């Protein structure tokens, strides 16, 4: 096959750029406004395209959201990094991974959009439950030999979601003003406890 026919067989470059522009606009709006207040028409306006083009590429708002706000990391890659090191420092390694994600604008938009939408959109809630808790945090807790892996993962997940809510959605002044090192130092012991510490069974 010639290079010319290969180019014709694939997606035209302009089409790919348009699709990415729509996704970028969608990520921003879902993160800023949430799922319910974001419309395909609003995404189209922000991307500078006709709303019919948004429907052409993504079909529905649910499908657009699923792609725009997909978890920005692969749990299969994160879990080994969190587990690679001393057991007593796993809380620190986990919060560092979380802060790495939240420090990058595009991945932060995805996470914020997911957390903001999870309260009203079941698809978003399912991603948070399955991808973050079950596929990333439960394997970490299980690898540490815990018989309470689902509970430990749920408690750890609550801390992470709470950080995103407080700092990036509610804009609580103290958490917004806190630097990365301060946040890591404050949250690492809590994550460490939920992953490895004793849980009161009373």
UniProtKB/TrEMBL annotation:
<dbReference type="InterPro" id="IPR036271">
    <property type="entry name" value="Tet_transcr_reg_TetR-rel_C_sf"/>
</dbReference>
<feature type="DNA-binding region" description="H-T-H motif">
    <location>
        <begin position="39"/>
        <end position="58"/>
    </location>
</feature>
<dbReference type="InterPro" id="IPR009057">
    <property type="entry name" value="Homeodomain-like_sf"/>
</dbReference>
<dbReference type="InterPro" id="IPR041678">
    <property type="entry name" value="TetR_C_16"/>
</dbReference>
<dbReference type="Pfam" id="PF17920">
    <property type="entry name" value="TetR_C_16"/>
</dbReference>
<feature type="domain" description="HTH tetR-type">
    <location>
        <begin position="16"/>
        <end position="76"/>
    </location>
</feature>
<keyword id="KW-0238">DNA-binding</keyword>
<dbReference type="Pfam" id="PF00440">
    <property type="entry name" value="TetR_N"/>
</dbReference>
<protein>
    <submittedName>
        <fullName>TetR family transcriptional regulator</fullName>
    </submittedName>
</protein>
<dbReference type="InterPro" id="IPR050109">
    <property type="entry name" value="HTH-type_TetR-like_transc_reg"/>
</dbReference>
<dbReference type="InterPro" id="IPR001647">
    <property type="entry name" value="HTH_TetR"/>
</dbReference>
